[in-house]
Amino acid sequence: MNLVATLGASALLTALAASIVATVTAAAGHRLRSRALLLASRRSIHAAALLTSGAVVALAYALLTNDFSIAHVASVSSRNMQVAMKWASLYSGQPGSLLFWTWTMSLFMAAFTSITVPRIPWGAAHAVATMGIVLSMFLVALIFFASPFQLSLVTPPDGQGLNPLLVDPGMLIHPPFLLTGLVSTSIPFTLGAAALMSGRLDAAWVRHARGWALASFLVLSIGNFLGGWWAYTVLGWGGYWGWDPVENSAILPLLPMIAFLHTLIVQERRGMLKTWNLVLVLASFALAVFGTFNVRSGLVASVHSFAQSEVGPYFLVLMGLTVLVSIVLIGWRLPRLHAEADFDALASREAGLILNSYLMIALALVILGGTLFPVFSELLRGVRVTVGPPFYNEVTAPIFVLTLLLIVAGTVLPWRGGSMQHHVRRFRVPVVVALAAWIALGALGMHAPAALLATGLCVTIGYVTFREYFIASRGLRAARGSSWPGALAGVFGRDPRRAGGYLVHIGVAIMAVGVIGSTVYQVQTRHVVSPGDTFDVSGYTFRYDDLVARRPGINGIEVEGLTRLEVTRNGRAVTTLEPGRRFFSNFPDQPTAIVALDSSFTRDLYVFTQGWDENKKAEIQVFVNPLAQWLWIGGSIYTLGGLLAFGVLRREPARVAATVPADAEPA
């Protein structure tokens, strides 16, 4: 008997019992109006979080002590792995990732139970019951279909080690952020379900959901950014987004969440979009469950997917139940979800926000359809037809351009519309800026219509956003007599939610410029060279110096072969690059690329080596990616804006609680 495995498995079983108890006591407490039962239900959620944490500690201990009698440890770890990489082993593999998923979900639910549940007496019992059901469903999958504590039939002397693609420092942060972001969608879902079950369908649930939705948006965004960065620096194909089915699954829940963060403003200010906002938060969680199913079902081929297993069909059923219950709840409450106001004008900020949300859902439907197209084609025609990046690029490009246009319009348009003269006065300068940008960009050599249009809109986004900052700062400066820097800081201090949102828009515009430059104007070449040979790419001369090898002897790496390249431009040294290949002792048929990068604000020199022969003749691929660094700069600004907006939201629930009527339904 393995004590660690027994303790871990027992902790998960007890967590399942605690989750079921939370559901039962919440339902009974609501029906009997018993505060003692409601308190017990909340404590059961905390107990489940504590128990799943204990299971994580048990698995971490097994990894650190090389306990290969546990099958998961033997499959993802080995004796020569560094301690830091054992952290990546914790959530690699199907059982480990499901444990991490369930653990972070339980932590989110415990935090929500402590912070928000006491402030929503109208829906506390419904929220806790919903969390208990959701957590129970994932614990069932973890315990009965993919247990991380299953024992090995034969204890090996050493483990297999991590999949070669995961032996990278990026794996220490990318999967935790992405998995945490996916599970965080369960909290807005819980609030939406609680609002529907309790009948409290005004703006109260939206105000409470806003902070949790913004947290989910931030963590999911960071997870996707880190995934793009990892793909760019590790996979060796010259890009950061390949429209892989699992990449698509990661971004799908983010799109309804972005839409919700825009349209919740309309519900708060105008009492509109009640049904739509509920659909968005329910859809976001359903798409997160779809991602879990997609990764584990073998439904579509992906370099990220786990092997097909029994847990795939289970998550298909869970996804179906999530969608079905959501439809039933909305259909039940639909007569009470009427809008409190009508549109005053199509040319208004609320119309822009609504159109933006429609575009996000259109984008999600396109990505979802493309991801599932191979399955549908096989069902209907018996032939699996795959959908590649060209399809996604062509179909999504117009949606991205329209989104940029709506960012401009949404920033300039006033609430509830205005007169034609008012619109002309507000739009005349932005139109001039856009026209000037298009003329200047065309003169500089940008002739691709979509790229020219989108980049000009990015410049206009920068202008209209900084104009908003300037107007607000000027007003504060006049009122307080402060300096310009002090006035700008005051803008963020007075209304960080709005100011941070504008900063997110600037980040989006800068990222768009990086994407356009590094895709539309990317240059790639491939050369077969021997030591001493040179070749030219985009004005740079590459000289293949020599092939060198080193034996790290850690993390399963047996040999690293590096092709040393001297790079010059106009006879001047630029840099020395060492792309290569990494070979693993436990995975001899899975060598990985060692990407070499030289980055500047104007371009990336991106080089990797396909392979070489016994005479050191190497096949080297070079990408010149213009403006690629601006993608990461824009992503940083985007994240900073989200963090600034989130800072004030954590203090708002206390004010919201005070607005709950005295005759609200008791919890």
> Could you tell me the radius of gyration in angstroms?
27 Å
Number of helices: 21
General shape? globular
Distance between the termini: 45 Å
Estimate what percentage of residues fall within beta strands.
5-15%
Mean pLDDT metric: 90
Instruction: Supply the helix-strand structural class.
Output: alpha+beta
The parts where pLDDT drops under 50 for at least 5 residues are 303-307, 648-667
Helix content: 55-70%
Q: What profile does the largest beta sheet have?
A: 6 strands, antiparallel
Got a strand count? 10
List the helices and strands and how they pair.
Layout: H1 3-32, H2 35-64, H3 71-76, H4 83-91, H5 93-115, H6 124-144, H7 174-184, H8 186-198, H9 204-235, H10 245-251, H11 254-270, H12 274-297, H13 311-333, H14 349-381, H15 389-412, H16 420-443, H17 449-480, H18 484-494, H19 496-520, E1 523-529, E2 534-537, E3 540-550, E4 557-569, E5 572-577, E6 580-584, E7 592-594, E8 596-599, E9 603-612, E10 618-626, H20 629-649, H21 653-658
Helix pairs in contact: 1-2, 1-6, 2-4, 2-5, 2-6, 5-6, 5-7, 6-8, 7-9, 8-9, 8-12, 9-11, 9-20, 10-12, 10-14, 11-12, 11-14, 12-13, 14-15, 15-17, 16-17, 17-18, 17-19, 18-19, 19-20
